[in-house]
């Protein structure tokens, strides 16, 4: 049986003020799919963190470099891909913000929030440069508060 | 982000309104806290009721503000946490770091 697929794509330059554009698309897509306000907000926040990382750590605030976001909704399954033009990083070296040694650090919570609000996140790195982050969420289970996933 | 403040019983109550997000409010929060410390205000109560959006950068600035004030021998406490900010502090266990109040007179009396 053929499933209905909704696809939205947006490309932004690496400016922090563009983050909200991508976040709003995520939230509207989720609300249109029947996710409540809280659930849509948390998915939007995961997108905000992903785009902020792509701009700051990936493209290093170079406005000539782009961040591409693709939203694909297939049935209840939302897949979000955020791609930058940066040099990549080692996900295994990202520190755990819940470790008592890291609790008072002023940074390092963005990826934790993404993992908390989404079902699955994974990175891939192109040899020529560019990082692709794929985040997925089953919207049938997306209603409600964030800590149900924490 | 906009910040307005008033004093009561030696406590500086700073009301924050708007976004505390990367590139839009995080640096402003740092400046607000620095200015308060420079003015000799060491008992700070941040009224968060008007904060509409906060992200990991904004959370990081809150943590940095807490550390800055504490290291100077002062105290920084939070008032009127919006539900979503409360949730963000819970999932990162930072809720164990901050003293949080829902009642302003009670918060002032705690310093």
Tags for this model:
heterodimer; A: 150 residues; Heat Shock Protein 90; 5-stranded antiparallel β-sheet; 3 helices; B: 111 residues; alpha/beta; 40% helix; globular
The number of distinct β-strands of chain A equals: 5
Major interchain interface with per-chain residue totals = A-B, 26 and 23 residues
What name goes with the CATH superfamily of chain B? STAS domain
Main sheet makeup of chain B: 5 strands, mixed
Helix share bin of chain A = 25-40%
Number of helices of chain A: 3
Sequence of strands across the biggest β-sheet of chain B: 1-2-3-4-5
Would you give the CATH topology of chain B? Answer: Transcription Regulator spoIIAA
Percent of residues in β-strands of chain A: 25-35%
| Oligomeric state of shown chains | heterodimer
How many domains, in number, for the residues of chain A?
1
Radius of gyration of chain A: 15 Å
N- to C-terminal separation of chain B?
Answer: 26 Å
Major beta-sheet overview of chain A: 5 strands, antiparallel
- Molecular shape of chain B: globular
Give the CATH architecture of chain A: 2-Layer Sandwich
Q: Tell me the name of the CATH class of chain A.
A: Alpha Beta
- Rounded Rg of chain B: 13 Å
Output mean pLDDT of chain B: 96
Q: In CATH's first tier, which class of chain B applies?
A: Alpha Beta
**What structural class do the secondary elements of chain A suggest?**
alpha+beta
């Amino acid at each position: 049986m053929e499933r209905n697929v909704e696809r939205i794509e947006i490309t932004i330059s690496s400016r922090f003020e563009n983050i909200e554009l991508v976040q709003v698309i995520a939230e509207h897509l989720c609300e249109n799919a029947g996710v409540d306000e809280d659930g849509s907000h948390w998915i939007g926040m995961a997108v905000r963190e992903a785009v902020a990382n792509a701009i700051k750590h990936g493209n290093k605030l170079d406005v000539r470099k782009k961040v591409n976001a693709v939203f694909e909704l297939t049935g209840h399954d939302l897949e979000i891909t955020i791609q930058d033009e940066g040099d990549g990083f080692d996900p295994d070296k990202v520190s755990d913000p819940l470790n008592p040694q890291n609790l008072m650090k002023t940074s390092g919570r963005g990826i934790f929030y993404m993992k908390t609000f989404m079902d699955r996140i994974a990175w891939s790195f192109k040899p020529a440069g560019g990082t692709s982050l794929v985040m997925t969420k089953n919207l049938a289970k997306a209603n409600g508060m964030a800590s149900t996933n924490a | 982000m906009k910040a307005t403040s008033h004093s009561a019983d030696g406590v500086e109550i700073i009301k924050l309104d708007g976004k505390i997000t990367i590139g839009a409010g995080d640096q402003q929060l740092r400046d607000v806290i620095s200015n308060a410390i420079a003015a000799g205000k060491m008992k700070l109560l941040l009224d968060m009721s008007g904060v509409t959006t906060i992200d990991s950068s904004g959370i990081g600035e809150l943590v940095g503000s807490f550390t800055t004030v504490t290291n100077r021998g002062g105290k920084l406490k939070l008032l009127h946490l919006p539900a979503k900010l409360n949730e963000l502090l819970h999932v990162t266990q930072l809720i164990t770091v901050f003293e949080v109040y829902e009642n302003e007179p009670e918060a002032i009396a705690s310093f």
